[in-house]
Amino acid sequence: MPAKLVRIQRSAAPGAAGPTMLAIAGDSAAGKTTLTRGLVAALGQAESTSMCTDDYHRYDRAERRSVPFTPLHPDCNYIHIMEQHLQLLATGQSILKPVYDHGSGTLTRPELVEPTSCVIIEGLLPLHTKLARACFDVTVYLAPPEDVRAGWKTARDTAKRGYTAEQVATELQRREPEAQAYIRPQQRDADIVISFGPIEGRADPPGTPLSATVLLRPTIRHPNLAAILAEAPTRAMHLKLMRDTDGSPVDALHIHGYAPAEESNIVAKAIWDALGVPEPMPASLGLLENGVCNEPVRLVQLILLYHLLRTPT
Amino acid sequence: MPAKLVRIQRSAAPGAAGPTMLAIAGDSAAGKTTLTRGLVAALGQAESTSMCTDDYHRYDRAERRSVPFTPLHPDCNYIHIMEQHLQLLATGQSILKPVYDHGSGTLTRPELVEPTSCVIIEGLLPLHTKLARACFDVTVYLAPPEDVRAGWKTARDTAKRGYTAEQVATELQRREPEAQAYIRPQQRDADIVISFGPIEGRADPPGTPLSATVLLRPTIRHPNLAAILAEAPTRAMHLKLMRDTDGSPVDALHIHGYAPAEESNIVAKAIWDALGVPEPMPASLGLLENGVCNEPVRLVQLILLYHLLRTPT
Questions:
Q1: B-side interface with A, Cβ within 8 Å?
Q2: Residue A1 pLDDT > 50, yes or no?
Q3: What is the pTM of this model?
Q4: How far is residue A241 from each of residues A67, A254, B82, measured CA to CA in Å?
């Protein structure tokens, strides 16, 4: 089915126009679940549904030993079923989603997913196909530097998924060609790309929160940060008009990890105020698993809440 | 979605018109799997896909102990997901079907079902809703007398599903109100109803194959049995023009279990010839699990093959 047709079907869905659909794509341990968790906490269960497309694995862990690719390869997943389920959710219909148990590495009993007003889809390959992309209103790609991600993956997979650090290192190496071929190209199709990394020319002490560059592509209408920052200038971040890798105009928001939270808070509050929601800004935003608040994560979550809660005009 | 819309969608499905969809409904141990097995064997795997809607159970066996209804109740099943999957199959799309393991009573890893040119759907409730019914080209209801079905169910569930005969008897009693409320009403919506039973006024010795009445409702166009039987009269069966329970005209085909197979074979051959298929009539038709051939089952299978293989005009 042509991708455009899905968009038409969505706008013509009987009754409601269907939920607002958000994709959070990125490689393993790129921070997808952290980003999603804060949004779900802020929206509440009545407003948000989240699910992971990695449950569409075609093979379990034992079977994967005899296939010539890793879970990152589209052929290792029921991509056409993922597309079908994304279309169903986008048109307001429930699905019976497969479940992959990361602990045991087995495929188990599927679960019912009923779309609420906001549906958050995270995973390795949610933006792999044109039809899948057509199901989303907002798309995010998480792009931490590879060494940072390797550290996150080692910490998680040894603590929660029963692997040793050596096994994780070997696995990362084995996955690299497919990450390059299938995961990272999705960055091209995201409305928002978040890249963590140190700031050149600075020698921040260990433990300084990571800085980040958030690309805000004009493929969707973001909150007017240029106006907000003009009114409340801050050392915590700056917005730079630049050219994207393909030459298109793009806004790059640089957020400085070393800056005090009070300063980025001014911008955060301005985005929240733009929403016109009576409640105070949710405290769950920006929280990492260790309980520390990360400003780039918080700002991205605020921009996403802006897209999820604002009534389209 | 209105049921008529599904029919329109089906005829407008991109590329092909979608598979021919056959439903075989009936209570537990009514003979659905036997009827399906012979058809699949006759059609071959390349031509036919079969699946059971009882896999859409919402609860596993342990969970059902604390719900106030049996697996026969629509609320005990994901009926709306069953409807969704039937629509997808009817429009030529694959599904990831849930799987209920009758041996262990658990819900397990789902499996991919890809529609071929004929899709056979059997189960307890495939005709329960209007939307589900709209997905089928041909619908069958199996209605053996309750005492016959109780015998079949006891034999199967003690041999294959780990129950005792007492447990089966208790379960049948417990299910009766829901069988009456939800299963048997589907008989009304079937194009073909097959009812086994002894013939009144005869004292056939034990072991005589069951006779059957096959209602052929003019809701679809059946092979012209009136013409076939006029040309080759036989004691093995007769066709009677009568009124259905709702007063509509219907053909009732009475097949006599005591009659020699050679005679019903004339009719069987005439139906097969009407198909114009070069191959000889498949030997798998009519075979019960014990290897004995049952003439009513064989004739129903032939009529179904006629509907499945004939190009609609």
A1: 1, 14, 60, 78, 80-81, 84, 88, 93-96, 98, 106-110, 112
A2: no
A3: 0.86
A4: 45, 11, 51
